[in-house]
Design goal:
With 72 residues, this protein is an all-alpha fold. It contains three helices and no strands. It has one domain. Helix content is 47%, strand content 0%.
């Protein structure tokens, strides 16, 4: 995992659990063929998790907390 991307992504998402879950979910989407939201140089190889963190760090992917469930 790229520490630089992680530190940059932490500035965008205040809750570390949300960051981990969001980046993990996005990495899975990328692994299954989703297109990157950030431009990559031709032939540039980057780990799916690092790519997800970079997308978050650059503000291309926004992670938000889910709305609270209504109580009955």
């Amino acid at each position: 995992m790229n520490e630089k991307y992680l530190e940059q992504a932490k500035t965008k998402v205040s809750d570390l659990r949300l960051l981990i879950n969001g980046a993990s979910k996005r990495a899975g989407e990328l692994a299954h063929g989703a297109r990157p939201l950030v431009p990559l140089a031709p032939g540039q190889e980057i780990d799916f998790l690092d790519l997800a963190l970079l997308e978050i760090a650059e503000g291309r992917l926004v992670i938000v907390a889910p709305a609270p469930r209504p109580t009955a």
